[in-house]
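Lab notebook, bench 4. The sequencing result for the construct came back, and we need a structural model before the next group meeting so we can plan mutations. Quick request posted to the team channel:

Model the 3D structure of this chain.
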Amino acid sequence: MEKADNTDFIIFDVGEMQYAIPIEYIAFVVMAMEQFPSCIPPRMPAYVKCVMRMGQELVPIVDLTQVPGYSTSNHRAASYPLVLIVSHRGRQIGLLTDRITIQSVEAEVVERTIIQHRLVNSKGTHFVQFDIEKFYNQLEAGQV
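Done. Here's the predicted structure in token form:
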């Protein structure tokens, strides 16, 4: 088990899953999508719920309950979910979430079966660390 330095994380819920993402990847938290113009372009994957205009950028809004391997349920708990806008490699993507909190926690690596998951531990509660690099690579390769 490997421990990392204390880091600030955003903890977000998607259905019954709880994820932690380092705060450095967070661009915005949007409380209500109705505040921003959005549309649903044709031929989008099922997990892209809409594309939202934020300033001069078009940001795809992803529902992780529709992305295999990212949720244990396929429905939203909240009728007006929050949107967590993450930024990586100059590209923004919105993640629909049910709840968001900010915590300073310690991370530790735990190996599960063949795949290595990084878990974030806060006072005995473990969260799956959202692997932003892997997620962006999956989107770009069309693997989700």
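DSSP finds one helix and twelve strands in the chain.
Will bring this to the meeting.
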